[in-house]
Specification:
alpha+beta, five-stranded antiparallel β-sheet, 15 helices, single chain, 438 residues, four-stranded antiparallel β-sheet, elongated
Length: 438
């Protein structure tokens, strides 16, 4: 214990934000240690002095400050890294790990940035995992809500929380998720890293998790027998397992009359189908199966492509890729520049390409419809993978025409039906409640 002070100073010698402050309490020297980037030292020091004023001795002060006393060097190092305040007596005879007054490094609860709730609460999850769990408990006031915590990672230790409702989520599913989380032995830097522990989907664009930043959506998932995960420093709830209906059903739809909510879901289904088939349908009808058109419509299509120097497939791929690039640029660029890029890419560039006879006016209409239809599904992740799946169908349509479109849709359906999360098919529409019989 006598060398603890020297060991700690040596351990954190390369950390410029590590502080060691000497204080005199009751004629006895004590040392306060920690990271000044995590601890509000002035307020924490004032708290220590107030506790010392109400303590009869230094030994009683240590007892009053914490129940973590006389810890070994490894535990103290871990506590420092977690942002704790270390109080050490002269000579290292006594030490205590104290919860300090921390510097506020988290943002306040704000409106959702990636989702737009309608006629619903406007708060969203933040980076602090405790705040996120609190947002769930604030709304779901039941003793059946279970909360399990884990610490995952090798170099970067991150807290992970698992929430579920007892009697709703399957005990078998809970046990499998619990086992997988305990087996994580590498750093979790992204959701894809977490995906790898929940089953092999190598090369798959579909994740095991459905992310949402809206508390009511996470609560709805809990009530639907799902499990919700929270990862520290990640402002989203991860709903497990991710199912196909998540793309079309949003809990906010229930705020409207039943007929309107059904209409909204039907529109999302139509939007997903149009995103998949519209570019393929254009290529198939223009270059492979033009005989399907009536004579007047065939003349109109032929006139719209008059003077176009490239084949319909290449013309379509150029436009589809260009639109995907514009959408990605709008997302990545600062908000002050995004609208300008949208105007330049969507209007000026599109009009210039039509006037230069590089693409037909009919294709511009088709591409505009694709951009709109791909945006109606719930979740940016779902929108992205639907946009990706349209390319294989487009290639098949350029070879086999209308038959290629139906073949592509069939293969897409088979592929999605083959995806599972712990033996739960991706195309499942309702998870069974614990105790339900088959």
């Amino acid at each position: 214990m006598e060398n603890m002070m020297m060991e700690l100073s040596s351990k954190f010698a390369d950390h410029d934000d590590f502080f060691v402050e000497e204080e005199l309490i009751d004629q006895t020297t004590i040392y306060l240690m920690g990271f000044k980037t995590l601890i509000d030292f002035a307020k924490s020091n004032l708290y220590i002095r107030q506790m010392a004023a109400s303590s009869a001795s230094v030994g009683e002060l240590f007892t009053n400050l914490s129940d973590q006393l006389d810890m070994d060097i490894e535990q103290i190092v871990n506590a420092v890294l977690e942002g704790k305040l270390i109080v050490l007596s002269q000579g290292g005879r006594q030490n205590a790990i104290v919860d300090p007054i921390s510097i506020n490094l988290t943002r306040s609860i704000e409106e959702p940035k990636n989702e737009s709730p309608i006629q619903a609460s406007m708060d969203a999850f933040v980076e602090d995992i405790h705040v996120n769990v609190g947002l769930i408990r604030k709304r779901l006031k039941t003793a059946r809500l279970s909360h399990c915590t884990f610490q995952v990672g090798e170099l970067e230790k991150r807290n992970l929380s698992m929430l579920y409702i007892n009697g709703r989520a399957s005990s078998d599913l809970i046990e499998k998720v619990n086992q997988q989380l305990k087996e994580i032995d590498t750093d979790i830097e992204s959701i894809d890293d977490l995906n790898k522990y929940f089953g092999v989907r190598r090369g798959s664009p579909v994740s095991h998790f459905f992310p949402t930043e809206v508390p009511i959506q996470a609560i709805h998932a809990l009530k639907k027998n799902r499990i919700v995960l929270f990862l520290d420093n990640y402002p989203f709830a991860l709903v497990f397992p991710h199912l196909l209906p998540d793309m079309f059903s949003i809990v906010n739809d229930r705020n409207f009359p039943y007929v309107l909510s059904v209409m909204l879901r039907v529109l999302r289904v139509v939007g997903a189908i149009l995103t998949l088939i519209l570019p393929a349908l254009y290529v198939a009808l223009v270059s492979v199966n033009p005989e399907i058109f009536k004579f007047d419509l065939a003349l109109f299509v032929a006139k719209s492509r008059e003077g176009i120097p490239v084949p319909a497939l290449l013309e379509t791929i150029i436009m589809v890729v260009l639109i995907d690039l514009i959408l990605e640029a709008i997302v990545r660029l600062p908000k002050s520049i995004g609208p300008t890029i949208s105007m330049v890419g969507g209007v000026i560039l599109g009009q210039a390409m039509v006037e230069a006879k590089l693409v037909s006016t009919l294709l511009v209409i088709v591409i505009t419809a694709i951009v709109i239809s791909s945006s109606v599904v719930a979740g940016i992740q779902n929108s992205l993978y639907i946009r990706l799946l349209k390319y294989p169908i487009l290639i098949l349509a350029s070879i086999f025409g209308i038959l290629g479109i139906f073949t592509g849709l069939a293969l897409t359906g088979i592929y999605l039906a083959s995806l599972t999360s712990f033996n739960i098919p991706y195309t499942t529409f309702r998870l069974k409640r614990e105790g339900d019989t088959k």
